[in-house]
Amino acid sequence: MSSEISTKGLGQPVSVGSISKELKKLWEGNEASTNASLMNFLIYTEEADQLVANSEMIQALTKEHACRALLIGMDRGAPESSVEAWITAHCHLAHGKKSICSEQVSFLLKGKSLGRLRNTVFANLNSDLPLVFWWQNELTDLFEERLFRVLDRLIFDSTTWADPKASFAKITEAREQAGTKMVTQDLAWTRSYHYRLAIAGLFDDPVAQKGFSKIETVTLKAHPDQRTSALLLLAWVIEQSGWELIEKNEDRFSLKSKDGQAIEAVIEWDEEGAPLSLLSLAGPNCEVKVMRQKGNTHLCHALCTDGHCIDFSGPADSDEPAELVASQLSRGGKNSLFLAVLPQFLELL
Amino acid sequence: MPRGLRFASSGIEGGVSNPFREDLVSRNRPEACTVVIFGATGDLTHRKLIPALYNLAVDGELPVGVKIVGFARRDWTDEFFREGLEKLNQKVSRTGHDPETWENIAANVSYHQSEFQDEDGYASLAKRLNEIDEERGGKGNRLFYIASAPEFFDDILINLKKAGLSQEREGCWSRVIVEKPFGTTLATAQHLNGVVNGTFEEKDTYRIDHYLGKETAQNIMVLRFANAIFEPMWNKEHIDHVQITCAEHLGMEGGRGGYYDKAGALRDMVQNHLLQLLSLVAMEPPTDLTADGVRDEKVKVIRSLRQWDTPELVEQNVVRAQYTSGNIDGQEVPGYREEDRVNPESETEAYVAVRCMIDTWRWSGVPFYVRVGKRLPKKATEISIHFKATPSVLFNATPGGVPDGNVLVIRIQPDEGISLRMNSKLPGTTLRMEAVKMDFHYATSFGKSSPEAYERLLLDAMAGDATLFARRDEVEEAWKFIDHIEKAWHESDKKPPMAEFPAGSWGPREADELLSEEGRTWRRL
Ligand SMILES: NC(=O)c1ccc[n+]([C@@H]2O[C@H](COP(=O)([O-])OP(=O)(O)OC[C@H]3O[C@@H](n4cnc5c(N)ncnc54)[C@H](OP(=O)(O)O)[C@@H]3O)[C@@H](O)[C@H]2O)c1
């Protein structure tokens, strides 16, 4: 892979030993711009040709989240060990006035990897600011204790994992070792944020509340690539409703409510649809559903009773991972609901 | 009960509430309601209220099923009303204007034509609201927003009561939001409170002070109570004095003079906004963050203000002034008495500076200087906390001496943020000190724009959270303080003089003297 890795747009090449000095030069004499930083934001990938795309994501993300951005690409298959670095700044006009800039340092590490990721991270952090670490794709052997102990927020996307069970086991272990400080954020969970808000909003209606105890079926439609997103959303419905999983048969789940009502849940896969295209909770004469058409930026919310539906639209979650990350960072929080839902999700998995 | 069903029952069959709400957002839940706006053809509705509701919808914060009914005198149709609202929303909305989202809002907007004084108009309003509830097939919460001139508050409230609209019904609430000005004297405020509380319970009454909806005003409590470094120093031992400045560079453009010349700076700004800011800065830590927990502490501050209750005390502690002609942004501007709709012999102040003393253990002897004025050099609202200087023994002999004490500045608007001035050594072989500034700007650190004050406040009223609204006793205590000053100015035999300053300068010399006689100066903004 090494020879054809593109580094176009990563900025000015610098030697690793002089990064701080070069960054300082970048700002010296630049009165017109403000260098701002609220956090260290790191994207790590073992698909090193992602570096340029990741730099573009940072450009978008820094519009709302000023940070010291670190991009690390690791090409573990390269025969020779080497390291290259680049610095640049992403600037945006804040509220149409001041130019606010976030600095970015990119690294391409090739060859033998042991200890090098950890050291690159530790050596380039802005002190005292939180470290948000976005680990793209599989959690490899480099995801290790000394690294995750320093993380404040770990972002990953479980839909990209070949073996979610094994990877979630690593996450659970990391959480146990890192203590409660580390917030874990699965983009598969973030992806359903507005679905969850919409369902909660619909159940504010007394009619829906009355129908709640009579729900018989739950139907979820999702893109086949979004298996963990769909299961997390279903796990949330089950957990919040206080239902119990009785039996699981591939994508069909038999559930029971506390007062003994049987509920059937099913996930249908739709290659042509949005990542999550439908969540419906239905009983006799009452159905609450949230839908999204592929590419649409809105969710359609509907409450149907006796065949008559009231519907309206609300915002949908973005399909872009960088926008999902940005919106979650704006909301902040410890993601404790995700952790509460996790055991139920692991049962469904 | 299943784990999710922990919310208190809201009177729904079987005690079930909404299990899906739990843990989703960390704030009180706004509930669906019909918002009735009195004065719906007016400026406030078009510029602030509807854009606020629109932006809440964009952010997905507006509860499902909110309906809006505009109430005013003009003979408009629903369609015409909506078109006018849309035009303004396109101009002023914080997040831009998306036709699809607008359509969703507009479909829930209607217009109800009536005079405020016309009882029949309220009977037909009640009928209309019942129909809306029936269409919805469920809850009929109602939020009445009185966005009219204050002379109509009584009529509107009394008529709402007569039409039976102010009562809670079958687990559904009725709340009222009242705009400023809330009274013009203690007596009128008490009268108005009497009418409001004769119509709505205090817990359902939301007196708006949009300064409290501003992000930085809310941040005062976080700054003070979530940072261990400030609170131990937040007292007379360490703080020399506090300044609160609200400077406006505008004058009486746009016909503003008509209202302003009747009110004046003290009533228009100090009674409400500035005393609210002062109470947030000076209050004791509340026992909890409930509306009454916070407001109990705020009202104690206002109650502890030393009263300037003789003309002599007013003259010593308060400076009032009018601007004479001068220059703003390179343009010549007229003096206050030459302004449009201002009485040429007006005795109304366009500037006021007040020394406030809070007689509590914490603040004994610490002056809070408050100033507000029109036609000052720039637009800015800021609070500055001036810490005492360190004992000078150590650096006395250094060239230039010791610079002033630390200053913590909370910028409310524009360019919201916080800065801290401290002393630092100048580089070089001799010991010289210079003041340097650590600065935090909201806009620099958080790219996302803050919600407008009205967004937050409308949502809070829908959620039944009155923390950011003024309570009856706060309003009345503030009027008590203001009334003494107004009486000395307008009713006493020894009226303290009216000072002058040229438009475009930082206020009259007399205001400078208010501080200089105690060895202090106003902060230069
Ligand atoms: N504008 C702001 O930014 C702002 C900011 C803070 C506080 N406020 C306060 O908010 C309140 C309203 O301000 P505004 O600027 O929106 O006032 P405005 O533009 O003068 O609007 C007044 C409204 O009241 C209606 N109205 C007047 N007399 C009426 C009557 N007898 N019967 C029925 N409707 C009547 C008018 O309806 P018609 O047009 O149909 O006659 C109009 O809708 C005031 O108390 C003001 O102090 C305003």
Question: What does the radius of gyration of chain B come to?
Answer: 25 Å
How would the global form of chain A be characterised?
elongated
Instruction: Please give the alpha-carbon distance between the first and last residues of chain A.
Output: 34 Å
Strand content of chain B: 15-25%
Mean pLDDT metric of chain A: 89
Sequence of secondary-structure elements of chain A: EHEEHEEEHEHEHEHHHEHEEEEEEEHH
Unreliable spans of chain B: 1-16
Structural class of chain A: alpha/beta
Structural class of chain B: alpha/beta
The portion of residues forming beta strands of chain A comes to 25-35%
Number of helices of chain B: 15
Main sheet record of chain B: 9 strands, mixed
Mind telling me the C-alpha Rg of chain A?
23 Å
Helix content of chain B: 25-40%
What does this molecule look like?
The complex is a heterodimer of chains A (349) and B (525). Chain A is α/β, with parallel strands linked by helices and 349 residues long. Chain A has 2 domains: 2-186, no CATH class; 190-348, 2-Layer Sandwich (Dihydrodipicolinate Reductase, domain 2), CATH 3.30.360. Chain A contains 11 helices and 17 strands. Chain A has helices spanning 19-27, 51-61, 116-123, 145-148, 164-178, 187-190, 193-202, 206-212, 227-241, 321-331, 336-348, and strands spanning 12-14, 33-35, 40-45, 68-75, 82-94, 98-110, 131-135, 153-156, 183-186, 217-222, 244-249, 252-256, 262-269, 276-283, 286-291, 298-305, 308-315. In chain A, strands 1, 2, 3, 4, 5, 6, 7, 8 and 9 form a 9-stranded mixed β-sheet that branches. Chain A has an 8-stranded mixed β-sheet with strand order 11-12-13-10-14-15-16-17, covered by helices on one side. In chain A, a hairpin with a 6-residue loop joins strand 15 (286-291) and strand 16. The longest helix of chain A is centred in the middle third of the chain and has 15 residues, at 164-178. The model of chain A has no long low-confidence stretch (mean pLDDT 89). Chain B is of the alpha/beta class and 525 residues long. Chain B contains 15 helices and 17 strands. Chain B has helices at residues 43-58, 78-92, 99-106, 119-136, 153-162, 186-199, 215-225, 257-263, 265-282, 291-303, 311-317, 442-445, 453-463, 472-490, 509-516; strands spanning 34-38, 67-72, 109-113, 142-146, 174-178, 205-207, 239-247, 318-324, 326-328, 331-333, 351-357, 367-373, 380-387, 407-413, 417-425, 433-441, 498-502. The longest helix of chain B is centred in the last third of the chain and has 19 residues, at 472-490. Chain B is globular and about 80 Å long. The model of chain B is unreliable at 1-16 (pLDDT under 50). The chains are: A alpha/beta (349), B alpha/beta (525). The complex binds NADP nicotinamide-adenine-dinucleotide phosphate.
